[in-house]
Write a structure and sequence with these properties.
globular, 7 helices, mainly beta, Maltoporin, Chain A
Length: 677
C-alpha cells in the first residue's frame, strides 16, 4: 500500500507552488479578474458560496436562512456541482464534512451514505429525500442514489443530526434532501457526452422552459460501463420530468415523475490476501451473479400561499420497484430458477402548513404537518424460498414553533407523534405431486408508537458570527429485513442528540463552521446471527469543522475535518466501519476566463471490520487517500472537460466483512463535451 508520506509529497510538489503563487501575487491580474471585469461569453461568473448566504427548506420544511437553523447545515449549490470533479451524487456527497460513503460494487449503485458514525446500518439511519419525499426503501438496501442523474439536481441540502420531529423514522445521523431542477421562463437546453476508462460511456440531456403560467423540466441520462472489476459492469437509463402550473402568485399545481432501469454485475468480495494485488483485486468471486432493477416514481402536489392565511403544501406520491437478481449462481440449476425478486409498492402522503404570526411586537411562526407512508413489500428467494411478505403503515404528525425572543435570539421547539403498524408473513415453497406451491405462513404483527422532540437556540450576533445549540431525540423502527429474521423482542431504537457550534465569517472571504455533537442511542438495532437490540447503549461524539476561503475571485479553496468517537458504552469497543478521522480538501481555479481546474482530495482513517463488534476478530481496514481532478474549457456554447479519478492509483476498499473486501476502482480517466443553449 502507498504511504501517507508518499501522497503528502505528491500533493505538496504539485499543489503547494500554485497556492504560494496566489498568496504572493504570482498569478497575473487577468487570471484573477478584478471586480470590474465583465463576463464575456464563455466566462464563468464567480460568486460567494458561503453557507450563511443560503436559503434551505430541509431543516424546517419551509424556506429559511441557514443563519437561523440550530444545526450543522451544508448546501451544495448548482455552482458547486458544476465545478466539482464528481460524476455522480455519491462522489459529490463523499467530499462533504462528516459524510462517509461506502460501496459494495465499486460504483454509485446502492452506495451508502453514513453521517455521524452509524456504521453498518447507515442506510436505515440516514434519511434521503428528493424534493422532500423519502427515497429510503423499507428493507436494508437503503436509498439508491444512482437512480438520480446529477444533471437533474439543482442543489443538495444536508442537515446533520436528528431530524426526528420533521422526518420521523430513521432520521438519526442526518437528512439529505436533493432538490431537482424546475421549469424556467426562458427555454434552456443542455446535452453532454463523455467516454472514459473501463469502456464507460455517459450521456445526458435536459430541457427546461415555460409559457405564461406553465413551466416544465425534462431530463434524460444513459450510462454504460464494463466496470473496474470482472463482472462489475453497470448499465442504466433514467428519465425524469416536472410540470408546474400557477394560478397567480398564490396557487401552484406540481406533477413529478421518474423512471429508472439498470442492469449490473455482482462480482462479490475478495479475500484479504488478494485485495492489495492489482491483478487479483479486479477478479470476480462470482462471475455469473447479476441483477436488474426497474424503479418508477410519481408524485402530485399543490401549494397554496397567502400573506394572511399562510403556506400550505400537500403531496401525494407513488413508487414501484422491481429488483431481480442472482446471488450464488450454480451451473447445475436452470438460470431462470435462480432469480430472486423484490417487489415493492409504496404510497406517500405529506401535508405541511406554515403560518407566521405577531406576538409581543415580534414575528414568530408555527409549522404543522402530517405524513403517511404505506408499503407493500414482497421478497422471494430462489430457488426454494422463502417468500417474505410485509405490509406497513407509518403515520406521523408534528408541530414546530419558532419564536423570536429578540432581534438576534431565536428559539424553536418541536414534537412528533408516530404510529407504526406492520404485518409480516413468511411463506414456504412446498413440493407436491402436481408440483411446487407456496404455502402461506402465520401472520405476525408489530405495532409501535414513537415520539420525538427537539429544541434549538440560535444567536445571530452579526453577519460575521452565528452561534447555535440544540437538544433533540430520534427513533428508528426495524425494517422489514430485520423483522423477518429477528429476536422475538426486537423493537425500535431511541436516540438523544446534543449539538453546539458556530458559523464565522472573516472579511467576506473566509467562512468557518465548527460543530460539536454527542449522540446516545438506546436499544440500537444490529445483526448478530439474528437482528436484535444492543444491551449496551452506544455513544457517538465528535467535532465537524468546515472552512471555505475565496483567495481571489477566480481561486476558491475549501477543507473539512471530522473526528468521530463511536463506542459501545459498557464494553468500550469501537463501532465497526466508523473511522475516527476523516478529512477532505479541494481547490477550484479559473486559470483564464475559459479555462478552469478543480482538485479534490479525501482522507479516510482506519476502521474496524464490519463484523468485528469486539474489535479483536479481524484485521482493520487500511486508511486511504484519494485525489480527483478535472479541467474544463469553455468555447462559446460548448464546454470541453477531462478528468482523472484516483490520480495516484490508491488500492482501497470502503467496506469489508469478516476480511472479505470490496475493492474500489483504481486510476481512471474520462473526457467529454457539453453543449447548452
Amino acid at each position: 500500500m502507498n504511504t501517507a508520506r508518499y501522497y503528502i509529497f505528491r500533493v505538496t510538489r504539485y499543489i503547494l507552488p500554485v497556492v504560494l503563487m496566489v498568496l504572493t501575487g504570482g498569478i497575473s491580474a487577468p487570471c484573477l479578474g478584478g471586480e470590474d471585469d465583465t463576463a464575456d461569453e464563455g466566462t464563468v461568473a464567480v460568486q460567494s458560496r458561503f453557507e450563511l448566504d443560503e436559503i434551505v427548506v430541509t431543516a424546517s420544511k419551509v424556506e429559511e436562512p441557514v443563519a437561523k437553523i440550530p444545526r450543522n447545515v451544508t448546501v451544495i449549490t448548482a455552482e458547486d456541482i458544476a465545478e466539482a470533479p464528481s460524476n455522480n451524487i455519491i462522489d459529490l456527497l463523499g467530499r462533504e464534512v462528516g459524510l462517509n460513503v461506502r460501496s459494495l460494487q465499486g460504483t454509485d449503485r446502492q452506495a451508502v451514505i453514513d453521517i455521524r458514525g452509524m456504521g453498518a446500518t447507515a442506510g436505515s439511519n440516514v434519511v434521503v429525500l428528493v424534493d422532500g419525499v423519502k427515497m429510503n426503501s423499507p428493507d436494508l438496501s437503503g436509498p439508491d442514489l444512482s437512480s438520480i442523474s446529477l444533471d437533474q439536481v439543482e442543489r443538495i441540502e444536508i442537515v446533520r443530526g436528528s431530524g426526528g420531529v420533521l422526518y420521523g423514522d430513521g432520521a438519526v445521523g442526518g437528512v439529505v434532501n436533493i432538490v431537482t431542477k424546475k421549469g424556467t421562463l426562458r427555454t434552456e437546453v443542455k446535452a453532454s457526452a463523455s467516454y472514459g476508462s473501463y469502456n464507460t460511456f455517459d450521456t445526458r440531456a435536459s430541457v427546461r422552459g415555460g409559457h405564461k403560467d406553465l413551466s416544465y423540466s425534462l431530463n434524460g441520462a444513459y450510462h454504460d460501463s464494463d466496470g473496474y472489476r470482472e463482472n462489475g459492469g453497470l448499465k442504466r437509463g433514467d428519465v425524469a420530468g416536472t410540470l408546474a402550473y400557477s394560478l397567480g402568485n398564490y396557487l401552484t399545481f406540481n406533477l413529478t415523475g421518474s423512471h429508472h432501469r439498470d442492469e449490473y454485475g455482482l462480482p462479490g468480495p475478495v479475500s484479504i490476501d488478494r485485495v492489495d494485488s492489482e491483478s487479483d483485486r479486479v477478479k470476480s468471486t462470482y462471475p455469473d451473479d447479476e441483477g436488474e432493477t426497474e424503479d418508477n416514481r410519481l408524485s402530485a402536489g399543490i401549494e397554496i400561499e397567502s400573506e394572511n392565511l399562510g403556506y400550505l403544501k400537500i403531496v401525494r406520491g407513488y413508487r414501484s420497484r422491481d429488483n431481480r437478481f442472482i446471488i450464488g449462481y450454480s451451473p447445475i440449476i436452470k438460470k431462470e430458477d435462480q432469480i430472486s425478486e423484490i417487489d415493492e409498492f409504496g404510497k406517500t402522503f405529506l401535508l405541511t402548513y406554515d403560518k407566521g404570526y405577531t406576538l409581543f411586537s415580534r414575528q414568530h411562526s408555527i409549522i404543522l404537518g402530517v405524513d403517511h407512508y404505506f408499503t407493500d413489500y414482497i421478497r422471494e428467494e430462489a430457488p426454494n424460498g422463502p417468500r417474505k411478505n410485509s405490509r406497513t403503515n407509518n403515520l406521523g404528525f408534528f408541530i414546530s414553533n419558532r419564536w423570536s425572543l429578540s432581534e438576534d435570539l431565536l428559539f424553536s421547539l418541536g414534537y412528533r407523534g408516530n404510529s407504526y403498524d406492520g404485518r409480516y408473513r413468511t411463506d414456504q415453497l412446498v413440493s407436491f405431486p402436481e408440483g411446487k406451491r407456496w404455502i402461506n405462513g402465520e401472520e405476525e404483527t408489530a405495532d409501535w408508537y414513537n415520539d420525538a422532540w427537539d429544541l434549538g437556540l440560535t444567536y445571530v450576533h452579526s453577519k460575521q458570527v452565528n452561534l447555535f445549540a440544540s437538544c433533540a431525540t430520534s427513533f428508528r423502527i426495524p425494517n422489514v429485513d430485520e423483522l423477518a429474521e429477528s429476536d422475538d423482542d426486537l423493537h425500535p431504537q431511541k436516540g438523544l442528540h446534543l449539538d453546539a457550534g458556530g458559523r464565522f465569517r472573516f472579511m467576506d472571504k473566509m467562512e468557518l463552521t465548527v460543530t460539536l455533537f454527542n449522540l446516545v442511542i438506546e436499544d440500537e438495532i444490529y445483526y448478530s446471527e439474528v437482528n436484535r437490540n444492543y444491551d449496551d447503549s452506544t455513544v457517538r461524539r465528535g467535532i465537524e469543522a468546515n472552512v471555505k476561503y475565496h483567495l481571489a475571485q477566480s481561486f476558491f479553496v475549501w477543507g473539512n475535518y471530522t473526528y468521530t468517537d463511536a463506542r459501545f458504552a459498557d464494553k468500550d469497543t469501537v463501532v465497526p466501519l466508523v473511522p475516527r478521522n476523516m478529512a477532505s480538501a479541494g481547490l477550484e481555479w479559473r486559470i483564464i476566463n475559459p479555462l478552469s481546474l478543480s482538485l479534490t482530495g479525501n482522507f479516510m482513517g482506519s476502521r474496524y471490520d464490519g463484523n468485528d463488534v469486539d474489535n479483536t476478530a479481524y484485521t482493520k481496514l487500511d486508511p486511504y487517500q484519494v485525489f480527483d481532478t478535472r479541467a474544463t474549457y469553455l468555447y462559446g456554447k460548448f464546454k470541453l472537460f477531462a478528468g482523472m479519478n484516483n490520480m495516484f492509483n490508491e488500492m482501497y476498499s470502503t467496506v469489508a466483512y469478516s476480511e472479505a473486501y470490496y475493492p474500489m476502482p483504481g486510476r481512471n480517466v474520462y473526457a467529454g463535451v457539453a453543449w447548452s443553449l
